[in-house]
Amino acid sequence: MAENDSSQDKTEEPTAKKLREAKQKGQVPRSKELNSMSIMFLGSLALLSLGPFIISHLTEMMTKGFTLTRSEIMNPYQLIASFESALEIALLGILPFLVLMTVVALSTPLMLGGWAFSVDAMSFKTDKLNPWTGLKRIFSSKGLMELVKALAKFFVVASVAITFMWAKSDEFLGLGFESFFPGLTHAGWLLAYGFMVMSSSLILIAAIDVPFQLWDHSQKLKMTLQEVRDEMKETEGRPEVKSKVRALQQEMAQRRMMEDVPTADVIITNPTHFAVALKYNPDNMAVPVIVAMGQDHMAFRIREVGGEAGVEIFEAPPLARALFAHGKIGQEIPSQLFYAVAQVLAFIFQLRQAKKEGLDIPDRPDPYVPTDEKI
Question: 3-class DSSP state for residue 313?
Answer without folding.
Answer: strand
